[in-house]
Amino acid sequence: MQTIQWQNVFGSDLKAIKQHRYCTEYHIENHSGTGKLIQYEVLPGIQLTYNLFKLDIRPNNNITNINIIEINHCMEGRYECEFKKNDYIYLNEGDLSISNFSCKKISSNFPLGYFKGISIIIYLDEAVISIKKMKLPDSIDLYKLMKKLCVKGHCFILRARNEIKHIFSQPYPVKEELYRTYHQIKVIELLLFLSSNNISEQNQERPYYSRKQVTITKQIRDHLITHMNKRITIEEMSKKYGIGATTLKSCFKGIYGTTIGNYMHYHRIKTAAFMLQNSYDSIAVIAAKVGYENQSKFAAAFKKITGMCPSEYRKSKHKQPVVHKKVSFI
């Protein structure tokens, strides 16, 4: 059976830590964080991988084969792909993407610093034989499916919807010896869904962002985080970095999945929670550091998100403060 050799993708950062007949578990660690991949051989020609990453950058394989289909489902976090035309596209939570390996990726990233999802790789020549042996309905035609969804090397995207959620959910416990059968059922269910007559008409057009737009937007995000003690306006950032305010707002939401205001609001509270647990600073000082001049407004905002006022949160952690610990924004 053909398989993606993850060692060739991640290099020495990847280690196989557990292996069974149809399953291999990998651990990855690099400068940006850690990750875990659990790969199952579902059928000859079809492999399914559970991905759990707490890092920023995912290396890419260099395979260019039009007869390999890649299906990605984003369960948590966000998934960024840069294609050969220097265009970027993003998967939200619940989204599904289908492409073949002729759709060359330049890079892949996780803008929120974490990602949980499922990847299915289908080697058409081998998978077609496997499916025929299962005597399944003729409605599953993998070559026809690729021709319908992978048009002109573009990535086909379905927004989050109940059918996708149902297919990728696991509403009941499955014994380890039944994993392969369970995954076979789920993959066939997905292929039947994708083979429905009108699925190609439901491709959700997502805005593609240029490399320049993405680079500037990420620089602005870093600037806002570095200076979170200040209240900086979108107009100020737009002027400073030479990008239109409307474009900035659209691109930021495309990358990070929320508005600039919401992103910074949650980031401030998240950082304040870390400081409350790991520093001796007073609540007033922490409030100022994360951009709140009014301590009462800070306490109200903190409680709305955490369910506790700052003093209660600090007491609940029962942890000796660490003075010079670096903040990790994951």
TrEMBL record:
Outline the extent of the HTH araC/xylS-type domain.
218-316
Question: SMART domains of this UniProt entry?
Answer: HTH_ARAC (SM00342)
Report keywords, A-Z: DNA-binding, Transcription, Transcription regulation
Entry's Gene Ontology molecular function annotations: DNA-binding transcription factor activity; sequence-specific DNA binding
Would I find Transmembrane helix among this entry's keywords? no
Domain of life, source organism: Bacteria
Name of the protein in question: HTH araC/xylS-type domain-containing protein
